[in-house]
Amino acid sequence: MSIRSAPVVGGGDADLWYALQVRSNFEKVTAAHLQSRGFAPLLPLYRSRRTWSDRLKTIDLPLFPGYLFCSFDINKRLPVLSTPGVVKVVGAGNRPIPVHLDQIKALHAIGEAGCPAEPWPYLEAGQRVRIERGVLCGIEGVLIEIRKVHRIVVSVTLLQRSVSVEIDRDWVVPVKSALSLAVGKSAC
Predict the structure, then answer these.
(1) Residue-range domains of the chain with CATH
(2) Which terminal Cβ of the chain has fewer Cβ within 10 Å, N or C?
(3) pTM, whole model, 2 decimals?
(4) C-alpha angle with apex 156: 35 to 1, nearest 5 degrees?
């Protein structure tokens, strides 16, 4: 997976990340427009092999079709909304809701790690795990197994979408409760 983005930072209200709904198949163009306007877009991509009648081609596709993420001050959102391709800021009614910074950091870490990733259906239930070793240390998600390959699913709650990343099962430990996390926190 590759990621087009600015650095992920935390801080005040100006540093909050929002999900933007964009025109279909316009994610890359919209991200480029936002970046040229001085904003910090985050467009998680994955590699997919497509077969045409005469050839096989590998292309980069958005992990969240129709969406990208952007860091901006919500009180100054008009330049974002007037960007070509932007439909709206995702939220409840007319109230934009920021994406949790931990979820943005997890998406960024997955992209930087270079692990094979793919879109995955949103999961409500399942065993939550935390990665204790490797390049994705500290990431939490849901552990699944497909054809004897272990994967962790990281979800973006606001969009009700998820990403599945192949991992080594030895890297993960179950997440039990907030109290046990504070007591048994490992150093990544």
Answers:
(1) 2-101 (3.30.70.940), 115-183 (2.30.30)
(2) C
(3) 0.71
(4) 60
The amino acid present at 185, given as its one-letter code, is K
> Two tokens at 76?
């100054």
Distances (CA, A) of 40 to 17, 18, 76, 149: 9, 11, 14, 34
Tell me the C-alpha distance between 51 and 69, whole Å.
29
DSSP β-bridge partners for residue 66: none
Q: 122-172 pLDDT, tens per residue?
A: 644 467 888 888 888 999 998 888 877 888 899 898 999 999 999 887 788
- Looking at residue 91, its pLDDT comes to 94
The alpha-helical segments, DSSP class H, found in 46-85 are: 78-81
List of the chain residues with pLDDT < 70: 1-14, 121-126, 177-188
Max Cα distance, the chain (Å):
58
Tell the residue number behind the tokens 């950091």, with chain if given. Answer: 105
